[in-house]
Design brief:
402 residues, alpha+beta, two-stranded parallel sheet, 2 domains, Alpha-Beta Plaits, Multidrug efflux transporter AcrB transmembrane fold, 7% strand
Length: 402
């Protein structure tokens, strides 16, 4: 089994290749399916907005011995009635957070005292704060505005950098895919959407864009003069670029996922650091989805858009015509080489032998035992040839001359 380094070297040199661009319909199907499911999750289940976006009152009880949610729920029902359903969560090992709707000053003081008695702590260990809904609406509107401006600037920047509007469109589609899928998975898990979550969404946009730009830069290098030659098609050159950057994309993703995964699984779930799980989940999902889109969606979509160009289609026809011609020539040469062998007979070896193989052809002739050996014949130099084929030494005369 080849090592990872050898595998990457074979991908870069082209000795090993995965037909990623050629199977783009499969990747389209997977991406569209995940995209539609994410949209359905957003429409049916919806997001779980945090208090920063919906507004309300928040209480934090510190130094508790038990972090059960039942005392907090009972205290809220005693003060506000059964119609009020609080959101209770545990932060760390000894802190409980309780979120309710907006309360007046009198209700705030009563609930603070009830929570202190429920968890058997001093009243000073219970802190309260209020977040207005207007602040959450302002954060939401600014986040959406920043997202739109970001996408517009990205599209213009990519079009100018690569001098190719198809690459800009493919990159924007990949970014939209990453955002919707990440938000859909966030809605599926049910984590609260906080300002940290929005920061995580914007961060994965930057990562996905960075990975896509790196792949597109290699694609541009491989396809710069591809239309003037007939060695490989545009799709094959782009597929080679994706294979050449595959190891780099995997390495970058793994290096980024290791610390984020540690924050999410070890920090949030095992250690109970609840304040980190919102941004960690957005980053973890976004890194995986961004890697997938940059490899399996962006470049195949660019090739799909470029394939409609008449020059690209003509160049693909030239490549196929050249390969067909080479295949016919190879088949003709093989048929010519096999024709003498098919005839058979003793003369076959002599007729097809090259100058270097003449002795072999003669040696392959059948022996004739019925023919007596010929006597040794003298050669032109005055000697005689022995039956073994070696030249005999000439006799010396009386004067010692040969």
């Amino acid at each position: 089994m080849p090592s990872f380094a050898q595998w990457g070297n074979e991908l870069y040199t082209g000795r090993r290749s995965y037909n990623i661009v050629g199977r783009r319909n499969l990747w389209y199907g997977i991406g569209i399916t995940i995209f539609v499911l994410s949209l359905l999750l957003l429409l049916v289940k919806g997001l779980n907005p945090g208090i920063e976006f919906r507004g309300g009152s928040e209480y934090r009880i510190s130094g508790v011995e038990q972090t059960a949610e039942t005392p907090a729920v009972d205290a809220v029902e005693d003060v506000l009635g059964t119609g009020q359903v609080p959101r209770v969560s545990v932060i760390g090992d000894d802190t409980v957070r309780v979120q309710t709707e907006r309360l007046d000053d009198e209700q705030t003081d009563e609930l603070r005292t009830a929570l202190a008695d429920a968890y058997d702590v001093d009243a000073g260990a219970v802190t309260s704060s209020y977040v207005g809904a207007t602040w959450g609406e302002d954060v939401t509107s600014k986040s959406l505005r920043a997202l739109v401006i970001f996408l517009v600037l990205v599209g213009v920047g990519l079009a100018l950098f690569f001098r190719n509007w198809e690459m800009a469109v493919a990159a924007l589609v990949a970014l939209l895919h990453d955002v919707v899928v990440t938000v859909g998975i966030y809605a599926l898990i049910g984590f609260e959407v906080t300002p940290a979550t929005v920061i995580g969404f914007l961060t994965i946009l930057g990562y996905s864009l960075y990975d896509t730009v790196v792949v597109f830069d290699k694609v541009r290098e491989n396809t710069r003069h591809v239309l003037t030659v007939s060695r490989r098609t545009l799709a094959e050159a782009a597929n080679l670029a994706v294979n050449q950057t595959l190891v780099r994309s995997i390495n970058t993703s793994v290096v980024a996922l290791l610390p984020v995964g540690s924050i999410l699984f070890i920090g949030a779930f095992l250690l109970g650091a609840g304040t980190l799980k919102d941004i960690a989940l957005a980053l973890f999902v976004g890194l995986i989805v961004g890697t997938y889109s940059s490899i399996f969606l962006a470049t195949p979509l660019w090739v799909h858009l470029r394939s409609r160009d008449p020059e690209v289609q003509e160049q693909a026809l030239r490549v196929r015509a050249r390969r067909s011609s080479e295949a016919r020539q190879g088949a003709g040469a093989a048929a010519t080489a096999d024709a003498p062998a098919a005839a058979g007979g003793p003369a076959t070896a002599a007729s097809t032998a090259t100058p270097g193989s003449t002795a072999t052809a003669v040696a392959d002739r059948p022996d004739r035992p019925d023919r007596p050996d010929r006597p040794d014949r003298p050669d032109q130099s005055g000697g005689r040839r022995e039956s073994g084929g070696q030249r005999a030494q000439p006799r010396r005369n009386r004067r010692g001359r040969r």
